[in-house]
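Lab manual, section 2.4: Encoding a predicted structure.

Procedure: take the sequence of the chain (114 residues), apply the prediction step described in section 2.3, and record the output as C-alpha cells. A sample record is shown.
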Amino acid sequence: MCIRDRNTKKKCVEIRTCPETQDKLAMQKSADFLKAFMLGFDLNDAIAMLRLDDLYIESFEIKDVKNLHGEHLSRCIGRLSGEKGKTKTAVENATRTRIIIADQKIHLSLIHIS
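Recorded output:
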C-alpha cells in the first residue's frame, strides 16, 4: 500500500495499491485504519482495524438519539463520560468496545458477532 499526503490544498490522503499488494481488501482496511485514527482512536486500536476483519466503526450524534439543547446536552455528555472518565471506561470494559466522545458525536469501535 502507498499512502501519500500530497494534496495539501484539499487536505486529503491518497491511498493506492502497489504491485506488491497481495490482499484484495487492503484498500478498505487502510481506509478504516485512517478513519479510526483521524476520529481519535488510540493508535493500537486503529492498528487492530488492520488485523481484525470483524472490527468496524459506528458513529452517531447525541441528537440522533434524543433532541437536547444547551445545558441539557452538555449534562448528557458529562454523564456519558463520567467523573474522570470512569463511566466511559466501565462501559468500554463491559462491552469490549472503544468509545470516543468528540463534542456531540459518539464513535464506537465494535466487533461484528455472527
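Check your result against the sample. Strands lie at 2-4, 14-16, 55-61, 98-102, 105-111.
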